[in-house]
Each structure stands twice: as structure tokens, then as C-alpha cells.
Amino acid sequence: xxxxxxxxxxxxxxxxxxxxxxxxxxxxxxxxxxxxxxxxxxxxxxxxxxxxxxxxxxxxxxxxxxxxxxxxxxxxxxxxxxxxxxxxxxxxxxxxxxxxxxxxxxxxxxxxxxxxxxxxxxxxxxxxxxxxxxxxxxxx
Amino acid sequence: xxxxxxxxxxxxxxxxxxxxxxxxxxxxxxxxxxxxxxxxxxxxxxxxxxxxxxxxxxxxxxxxxxxxxxxxxxxxxxxxxxxxxxxxxx
Lengths: 140, 90
What we know:
The structure holds two protein chains of two kinds.
Chain A: H1 2-26, H2 30-55, H3 59-89
Helix pairs in contact in A: 1-2, 2-3
Chain B: H1 4-29, H2 33-58, H3 63-87
Helix pairs in contact in B: 1-2, 2-3
Keywords (chain A): Membrane, Transmembrane, Transmembrane helix
Pfam family, one (chain A): PhaG_MnhG_YufB
GO molecular function (chain A): sodium:proton antiporter activity
């Protein structure tokens, strides 16, 4: 019975890690890659660690596995937010079929502060056009 | 009868290895440096998974300490890369 539970958990975990890696290879844009990677890989590694916590009949292993899961769930969104913000400031282009970029022109260039209502509006007629790639090769 | 050990050996570990290889392709050809940073982050996360499965398979619970250190290094590396990419002059 417990073997079946472990097999199901590890299968779902390994498959979500596989989907994360296929996503980072196939998605057309840095931001889509970031979005597909962080959640799926955290879920997959968390399920594999839950497998380890069930498998070993020892309190210390369970504590360690829960600590790693907690640490991953806390730190993965923070790291993704930081790297996405850095990518936006350094001018990584968006996908060529992007419909809207609501942050275009809203950031102060020097201080990197967000101006929620003072800046120009992002829709048509904004002073600063969004940084959308012209071709597929620019982001692929 | 398939035991859980052969299932880990012949299904789970190959899936994780194929995932790591696919991410290496993105690490090689990523157009911007931020693509390479998230590919490196994902490789370390897959490494945590592989270490976990190996520690189950080899019955070595000491390996999980290495997984803790790797999680810490992945977080700190990504934060440091983001900080310095944002600070650099173009």
C-alpha cells in the first residue's frame, strides 16, 4: 500500500520536473520561461522530498525533508521576482506576439522606482513603447 | 512483479536525467544572460531531486544535508546574479 503511494508521488514529481525542463526549452520568451519553471520545479522537488520523508522511518529525515520543502517554497518566488526585475531593467525583449506590457514607461530609469500614477499611461500614445521583440530569433 | 527499487532505478532517475540534459541545452544557447541564470537555477533544483531519489535508493540519509546546502546555494546564487545584473552599467 505504501509502495503505491510512493510510486504515485514520485511519478508526479518526476513528471512535473520533466515538464518544467521542456517548458524552459520550448517557451518563446524569458518571462514565459521563468513563469513555467519556478512553480513546476518547486512542486516536483517537493513531492520527491515528501517521498523521502515517508520512506525513511526516522524523525530526523522527516524534519530535514520538511525543512528543505519549506526553504524552497519560501525562496523560489523571491529569486524569480529578483531575476525577472533585473531582466526587465536590462531590456530583455518580450515575445513578438505580446498583447500588452503594463509596466512600460512606469519605471523611473535612474532610481528604479515604480511610479504608479505619475508616469505616462502604457496603452496607445504612451511616451515609451514597450520592449517587444521584432522577430522570433531575438528571444529564442 | 515490479518492486519500488527497480521503479526508482529505471523510471524516475532516467526522467530526471533527461530533464537535466534538456535544461543544459537552454544553458548553452540562451540568448540573454538571465536565461542562463534561470537555467542554472533549474539545474541545481533538479540536482536536489536527483540527490533525494539517490538517498532513498542507496539508503543513505546523510545525502539530504547536501540537498539543504544546494538549495541554499541556488537561492544565494540567483539573488547575487540578479543584484549585479541590475547594478551593471551598459
